[in-house]
Hints:
Elements: E1 5-10, H1 16-31, E2 36-41, H2 53-61, H3 78-81, E3 84-87, H4 90-99, E4 107-110, H5 131-153
Parallel strand pairs: 1-2, 1-3, 3-4
Helix pairs in contact: 1-5, 2-5
The chain binds 4-nitrophenyl phosphate (4NP).
4-nitrophenyl phosphate binds next to loops.
Amino acid sequence: MKRVAVLFVCLGNICRSPLAEAAFRREAERRGLEVEIDSAGTGGWHVGDPPDRRAQAVARRHGVEISAYRGRQVRPEDFHRFTHVVALDRDNLADLKRIRPSDAMAELLLLLDAVEGRRGKSVADPYYGDDADFDLAWADAVAGARGLADLIAGGG
Length: 156
Ligand code: 4NP
């Protein structure tokens, strides 16, 4: 299989994209997929920060430790380094289209494009929400990770 590298991108890189990164790391490991995986934010407010405590907590409830993750901001070069750039919501997707270099080869998609019946949909931002909103973000991350792994394992 050709080299695959996946970057998950949300706004702050402290809630949704770390959850997508964690869910996809676990899914790739389960399936024995050799994939480089990272996450980033379109915004720069949380560069160097660990994930939001509520994101850490929901991941931990599902057996995944993300406290060592650190926020970083997406860069145009990421479109060369990664084969798939995966936006968590439609605003992130629009921002990524703006910063994508014209010669970039990376496939740009929404996470939920990989999920049957959710094409074009956003993972809702849980930052101003409560634990239930983080549960929803985790569920979307897991569904997206499975769909994306199917896509990639199928050569997509
Ligand atoms: P995320 O959530 O994009 O899922 O990481 C947010 C985190 C921080 C902010 C907004 C959304 N913020 O405005 O600082």
